[in-house]
Amino acid sequence: MKDILKAHKILVYIFTLTIIALVYVNQQALIYQMGLSVKENYQIYSKLVDHNRILGYNVLNLKSPVSLQTRLLAKKVELNMPRKWQVVKIESSPTKIVRKDAAKRGLFASLFIIGREAEASPNINSYTPISH
Amino acid sequence: MFVQLGAAKPLSKLASDQYKTYVRLLPKRGVIYDRNLRELAVSINLNSIFLDPELVEDKESAAQKLSGVLGIDAEKILQKLNKDKRFVWLARKLDPAVERAARNLHIKGVDFIKEPQRVYPNATLASHITGFVGLDDEGLEGVELLFDDHLKGTIGWRYSIRDAKQREVPGYEYREIPPADGNDVVLTIDNVVQAIAEKELDNSFKKYNAKGANIIVMDPYTGAILALASRPTYDPNDIKAYPAEARRNRAICDFFEPGSSFKIVTATAVLEEGVVDAGDEFFCENGEFKWSSHTYHDHKPYGWLAFRDVIKYSSNIGTMKSAIKLGSSGLYRYMKRFGFGKKTGIGLPGEVTGIMRHPNQWSKLSLCSMSMGQEVAVTAIQLACAISSIANGGYFVRPNIIDRVQDRTGNVLEHFEPKKMHRVVSEDTAEKMRQILRGVVDGGTGRFAEVEGYFPAGKTGTAQKVEPNGTYSHRNFTASFIGFLPYDKPRFVVVVTMDEPRPQYYGGTVCAPVFKKVAAQLMGYYKIEPR
Questions:
Q1: With contacts defined as CB-CB under 8 Å, which chain B residues touch A89?
Q2: B213 in contact with chain A, both atoms CB, cutoff 8 A
Q3: Which of B15, B74, B132, B493 is the most exposed place for a label (fewest CB within 10 A)?
Q4: Closest to A65 (Cβ–Cβ): which among B125, B168, B171?
């Protein structure tokens, strides 16, 4: 009876060890497979990153002043700085205009003006080039 | 027993060599930026083709197919295929479209390997500053060479195991040291200013059929170079297509006799030493002046001229007479103070000192000749520093083209602060000189440099070149214009030089218009309103 139990125990050990070994081999195979799949994905990722960089370079190339200049010249678009007489300078603050006008009017004339006169609202802080 | 005990070590090493692999991990080379972080040099990865001739089955057919795709002679490919090697380069850093076509051939024994490729999106723009790299990504010129240690990064490596097909088995890495990507270099250059300067220089360079040309745009207070260009130029994306001559950064590597531009040194020296005042009158001998054994001439005959007009009309005789009052040692002292005869310290590779002899080596004529820019050789960058000293109120600034080095996350590792070196002249003399130089543009020899509403100041220069026999040429000239604007509160210094322009050769005719066009566009770009 004892021998049977001993043999049974050994069989259980062998069986357990076999199972563990199989699980181990299976795990290793899985690790290997996963590794390969990670590598494949990484290759796709790096390929896309490289492609992105190449496209980025193309964008930089198109944005470059040299290439813009070449394209503008090819289309015969020659941009020039406006001359001094082509620039209208607007006072930076509308209130200054009102005060200047009041000063021109004189104190006596100002007494008869109750509120602000209707006036165009200039786009302050800018000067507008006029194209001819 | 022998295998287990005696030969265990070598056999185990043999086995480990067979399944272990060492993988080099390449870092990404740093980016070169302009001052507004616009890329001037970046890296991309491209594939190269290599052959394993042993694996190629039908070599002739493979050679024919590859030749059709790569545009390489089939005979040459066949020669490579017949080599007794396991690794032969076929073509490196291929265009992605070509690479795709080559992959689609599916030829056994033809494989691909990724390699970094340095590219310059602006092509020729600022090429003399950025420089270029070699086939193995090592800096060979310009900033690429100067900052190669920062830009190249550190190679990493990984020990791993490989399978029977020599593929690395992922997940079984023994040890890995990741690569450290290169740091980025930020320049003081402004891409837009550079483009403006290069466009205008190019137009004049072609118009006047010149042998060479330079332009420098500089901030006179900090020494920051906003643009620096030389002609002829080259595209660093395709170095082989250009002669070595085109790769020379003439603004720092070439020296020349500056001619009348150098009169700013004489004029500043005599004013600072108090031997002459701006209103003092000089008799300009009606254009012919005998000194020692030599007769000097003016480009036009002048009689009596106030000193300010001597400079305004660029009278050689008037300038010489003022220099004679100062003496050799005085002129030499100021030449040194203005930074001539030594490197400016811009830091770009290949800078030269120019030629400036000690008064002990001067002849009897040297004082007169040097006062008007002969017998002395300077670089364009030295001229830019000299005129900056007048524009900024009298101190010498070291020109600076590198702003900072930073890592990939933007942390500044090294900052190159502007450096005031020493005082050249007093604020008062600098102010007097600015007014005199304003006169040069306002009705003097530099009137073609006038920019309406911005009041530029400057000095023209036209120097005869020295012939191989040692005499001054009557056919070959170096033209220059050095100036700044506005004259009372200078924002920018612009130096333009042209080597052997034809048929016109005067600095006032050839270089001053370039200054004018660049200066006008600079004012627009920086939104400086006209007065």
A1: 529
A2: no
A3: B15
A4: B125
Residues B413/B354, Cβ–Cβ less than 8 Å = no
Q: Do A89 and A117 have their domain in common?
A: yes
Residue B235 maps to a domain? yes
- Which residues of B participate in catalysis according to the annotation? 260
Give the burial class of B4: count Cβ atoms within 10 A of its Cβ; 0-12 exposed, 13-18 middle, 19 or more buried: exposed
CA atoms within 13 A on the CB side of B63: 14
Query: Which amino acid, B287?
Result: G
Q: Which domain holds residue A21?
A: 2-73
Tell me whether residues A32 and B42 touch, CB distance under 8 A.
Answer: no
**Do B226 and B218 touch, CB atoms closer than 8 A?**
yes
**Is the confidence at residue B232, as pLDDT, over 80?**
yes
B529 interaction partners in chain A (CB closer than 8 Å):
89, 127
User: Both A43 and A60 in a single domain?
Assistant: yes
Which residue, of B119, B145, B176, is where some domain finishes? B119
Q: Is residue B258's pLDDT more than 70?
A: yes
What CA–CA distance (Å, rounded) separates B248 from B242? 11
Provide the phi-psi class of B463: left if phi over 0, else alpha when psi is between -120 and 50, else beta: beta
Sequence-separated (6 or more) residues with CB below 8 Å from residue A53: B42, B43, B44, B45
- The CA-based angle B304-B307-B312, given to 5 degrees, is 95
Q: Which residue has the higher pLDDT, A26 or B167?
A: A26
ipTM exceeds 0.90, yes or no: no
Same structural domain, A94 and A64 = no
Of the residues A57, A73, A89, the one at which a domain ends: A73
**A2 in contact with chain B, both atoms CB, cutoff 8 A:** no
Categorize the per-residue pLDDT at B317 as very low, low, confident or very high, splitting at 50, 70 and 90.
Answer: very high
